[in-house]
Amino acid sequence: MGNHTVNHKSMPDLADEKVESEIMDLHKAVYSKFEYEMKYIRPPMGEFSERTLAITNSLGYKTVMWSFAYKDWEEDNQPSQEEAKSKILENVHNGEIMLLHGNSKTNTEILRDIIKEIKSMGYEFKSLDEFEA
């Protein structure tokens, strides 16, 4: 599990102290509840600056971006299952970090099939820790 901040704000728009609190407030809450130390962060909306990267690095985080995403987060504007499957499967590639939003009804309905199809294409799923190894 990785950090995505408490309030999903554009980090370059925030003061240094607010960037740190957005990250560390979530970090502390997750650790308190699950005793899990997060070490990866994906900046909300993919928005970052050299300043915010320096802050996240100083907090012990490694920034991870995605190599595939599609417009799946709008709950009232979901693609059909066929459209979503096609878009996802047409973009599968080695080393892919796929961004899918959990609030997408379509994604939750097709995820099992997508995983099976990608595996049948010869790909494996790995954690970020395994990627770095």
Residue stretches low in confidence (pLDDT < 50, at least 5 long) are none
End-to-end span in angstroms?
17 Å
* Succession of helices and strands: HEHEEHEHH
The radius of gyration over CA amounts to 16 Å
Overall geometry: globular
Sheet with the most strands: spatial strand order: 1-2
Kindly estimate the percentage of residues that lie in beta strands according to DSSP. Answer: 5-15%
The whole-number mean of residue pLDDT values reads: 94
Total strand segments: 4
Oligomer: single chain
Structure description:
The chain has helices spanning 16-34, 50-58, 81-90, 105-120, 128-132; strands at residues 40-41, 62-63, 68-69, 98-99. It is mainly alpha-helical. Helix 1 (16-34) packs parallel to helix 2 (50-58) and helix 3 crosses helix 4. The protein has five helices and four strands; from the N terminus they run H-E-H-E-E-H-E-H-H. Strands 1-2 form a two-stranded parallel sheet. The mean pLDDT is 94.
How would you briefly describe this protein structure?
This protein is mainly alpha-helical. Helix content is 44%, strand content 6%.
